Every structure is written in structure tokens, then in C-alpha cells.
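We emphasize that the prediction below concerns an isolated chain of 628 residues; any contacts that depend on oligomerization or on bound cofactors are therefore not represented. The input was used exactly as deposited, without trimming of termini.
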Amino acid sequence: MRLKPISTSNGGRHSGALWALLCLFVLSLLPAIAQKKVKTAAKTDDRVYLVHSDELRYDQFGPVPDAQIVKGKVQFMHKGARMWCDSAYFYQQTNSFRAFGHVRMVQGDTLSLTCERAFYDGQAQMMEARQNVWLKHRGQTLNTDSLNYDRLYNNAYFFEGGTLTDKNQKLVADWGQYNTQTREAVFYYNVKMIEGDRVITTDTLHYNTQNSMAHVLGPSKITSKSGEIETRDGYFDTKSSKSKLFGRSTVNDKDKTITGDSLYYDDKTGQSEGYGDVVYVDKKNKNSLLCQRFNYNEKTGLGWATGKLLAKDYSQKDTLYVHADSVKLFTYNINTDSVYRLAHCFRHVRAYRTDVQAVCDSMVANSKDSCLTMYRDPIVWNANRQLLGEVIKVYMQDSTIREAHVLGQALSIEQMPDSVHFNQLSSRDMFAYFVDGNVRRNDAVSNVRSIYYSVDDKDSTLIGLNYLETDTMRMYISAQRKLQKIWTCRFEATLYPMTQIPPGKERLESFGWFDYVRPLSKDDLYEWRPKAAGTELKKVQPRVLPKQRLDDDEKNKVDAHSGIGKSTGETTEDATSNGEHVTDSTATKVKTAVVASGKTTAKTDSSSATTKKTMAKSGGVATKRKTK
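Result of the prediction step, given as a C-alpha cell string:
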């Protein structure tokens, strides 16, 4: 039996419609499947819940018709915070309440707040606490009468005066805020921070309770037993007792003050630093120091200063100014009765006072013996006088000069009123002694040579030049600064009339007038003017006796002449043993008379032959005297 094929012409239409219906059904199910896969975010509960109250009622005709009136052990809860009070108005629609009586809020285990009345806004998470407010957070306690606590930003504001207590610190201000998350506090207006004996008074204070760092802004004052600090911008580490001061600050320590653009101080180590126009003032000793950088340790007594350095001493009538590139301070036997200090001033030292000026390369001030020592080409000027040597030592007594020692190549020069002639005195060493600040005695020791111009008392004209050589000379000077008398041992002297002075005799070999390096004023101290090249003092090597030079070829020649007798120009020691001579102001009159008498020669020994030769060459008159 043969089967007939079935026709699918109409069936194909039905199957296509079926497939279309199936596709539409699947598409309608896709959104539902997608919704099942998407996780919905958990909804936060912003509502304020009334947890408990002994009494709850409504009063539609009362003063608060939209509030629930709750009384007795009232408790609220909102976002992890719990609040208690005696009674409250609960505004459920606005998600807020007003609490009265023994209000208390606790947030976690680190923050608690108590007050007498408060308003809490659940939407803004703001609590307005009033009357006897106490906020405690970890180790800090904030007390005020009006405080707004913002739970959203963790800020507590007070604006009617408040006190923050942090361990040993207490902060008082008219207005301020405290962040419970960062634990930073900011206080404004009449701010006072008290820690032990230290009191900080300022207009603005930033305080971090975690690291105990305080930052003051505006006119501020810090007082303690050790002193007082004034600043406009300062940081204080209350743990380590370190301070950083900016904005032209001042540290007052009893009779001493330090002012600078930036100051750093460590109370534990005693280290202090200053930068930018630093001014140090010692009110007790009446002196001050100006510089750009300053460093000092009050416990060790060590310090230094540099940069446009200028020291002032105003203990006398006239102020003494001293400039140097740098200065170092050393203190010995500190905190004992035998304490003393050394101040080393080095490089380009210049000093100025109206009556005295000085320059040198370096200087050391020693408080033990009140000595001021100048090294390397020191020069001192007083009026028309100049004093120089290898080393100059000045001894003080109550800020007044007592002695002055010039050691090595000593040279004293006095410029005459005509500014052309100079009185000169040179020796190995010189010693000057003062009374009430005025020189009264001057001693010249070893290899003394002098040039002195005699002056007519009537018309002040120059009479002649007196050249003298001796081993030791002592001059006595009156209180009116006039020469009274001269003491010398054996000497040789020659007097030349003004018209018959041999060429080159008017100046000593070591003569040097250095007025061009002399400070002219206190403002001229910063400009260093060195000596002309070749005029610096050179160290003089001591003479070595021939018998000490065994390898010298001239030794035999010296031995051959060893039998020659000593002449009148023998050593100073022999001359001193022969006798001494004392003259006074009458010596000048005698010399004047000799010149006026005409050609006169005092011949005492064979050395006068040299004088005769000089007279023959000059054609004039010279007088040479040797006195025993």
C-alpha cells in the first residue's frame, strides 16, 4: 500500500506564527530575569526612634500640637547614638525632638555629652545642647553653656565661652570648635592655654590633642618661670617643650631678650636658634648683638652668630660698636661661681666709638681676666694717635680700660696739628696704664727708638726733631694728657733743627700711617678696607748667635774677631747696668737752648764721629748726647 505525501502549504503558516509567539513570550520574561539578578541597595534608616518613656500623650490644643509629649526615663535612638532625658517633645514628622532635664547622649564607647536641655535634628544629625554642657571624648573634656554637635562632620562648636581640658593642658576661649575624628581644636578670641607654669594668651589657637601641638596666630604671649615669648605665628610642642616662632618674635629671659624673624627653642636641651635680623639684648650688662643667624645653648653655654654681625656696648657714655664676620661663644665652669666665657670674633673685625677705633683680623674677649686680645695686624686709633703691633691686649675694669699691652713690633704714632709731621715711638713691646679711662703711664721696652718734635710754647711752632735710642723708656702723663716726665736708662739722642733734618730722618723705618683703613662711623664698619699690599706686619725672627750655627762657614771669621772689645753701642743689658737717667719737662727747655746757642756738639765717646759726618753733609747743627 503506497502512502500519499502530506501537503505543508497551510501547516507552514501555522508553524511560523507559533515561533513568533514563543519569541514574544521569551522577551517578556527577560526583564523579570534581569530584576532577579540586580541586587537592591540596603535602605538606611534615618528615622529617630522613641525607645522608651513612662508617659506619652498628645495635646492638639496645647502649645505643641504637632508633638508627642513624653515623660519619665525617655530614651531615643538614631544612627548608633542613644539619648536620654527626663522629658521631651517628639516631632515624629520632622524627625526631631526637644529634650529637657538631665539630657545625655552616648555615641559608641568614646563619646558622651550631657546638658540640661537640647534640640536634636535627625535630618541634619545636629544636636544643640544648652546649659552646663559637658562633652567627653577619649581623654578630652569640653565644658560650655552652648554647644552644637554636628554628628555628620564630627564637629562640636561652642560660642559663649568654653574650656577644653586635655590631660595637663587647659584651654579657655570665647568661641571654638573641636573635631572628634581628627581630634583637632580651634579657639578664637581671648584664648588662654594653661599648662603647669606656662600660660599662652592669644587671639587664635589651633590645638591637636593627638600630638599635643599648639599653633597660635595673631598677637600672642607665652609666659613661664623661665621667661616670656611674644609672637604672631608660633608652634609649641607641649610634649617635647619645643617651640617654633615666626613673624618677628621675641623671647624674654629675665634680663636678656632675643628677637628674630624665625626663632627655634628647645626647653629641655636649652638649644635656641634665630634667623633673619636677629637682635640679642643684655639689659643687665647694657650690650646687644645684631646678626642674621644665631645659635646658643643655655645649658652648655656654647653659641655662634654670623651674617652682618654688629655688637653694641652702651655701658659707657659713648656706645662701642664692633663688627666681625662671625663670633663663637664658649662657656667654662657653667653654673658655678668660677664661670667665665670666651668670645672669638674672627675675620674683618672693626670697632668704632667716638673716642677710639680699631681694626684687626680676629679678636678674643675673655671674661675671666676682662681681657680683649686683638690678633693679626691690629691697629687702634685715638684722636690723632695710632697704635699698632703684632698683638694688642686691652684689660678692662667695669667696662673701663685699665691696661693696654702691645706685644711685638709695637709702634705708636701721633699726628701733629700740621698733618705733615708725626711723633713716633717704636719698641719691641709697649705697656700703657690708665686711670679713669685716661692714660697716665706708658712704658716702651727693648730696642726703643723715638722721634719727637719740640714745640715752642709761645707760638706752637716746631723747633726741631729729637731722635732718641734706648733700651727702656717710661713716660708719665698728667690728667690733662700732657707729658710730665720721661725716665730712661742709658740712651743716645740727637736734636736736629727743623731746617737741617737729614732726608729720611723724619720717619722711623717701621713708620706706617693707616688712616685709610680707619672706621669713620658705625655705618662704616661693614666695609672692610685692607692695608696696602706690602705694608702688613711680618713676623720678625729672633737673632741667632753665631756660636749656635755650627755649620756656618763664617764661624771662623766670628771667632777671629771675638777678642774685639765692646764699643759704646753695646747691648741694652750692659747699658742698663751702667746706670739710669731721669728727665722731666725741663729736658725740652734744655734741648731748645742747645739749638738756640748755635753750632754745639756734645762729644762723649768715639760714636760722636758719626754725628760729625752727618753735620758735615747737612751743613747744619745736630746735638748728640749719651748719658750714663
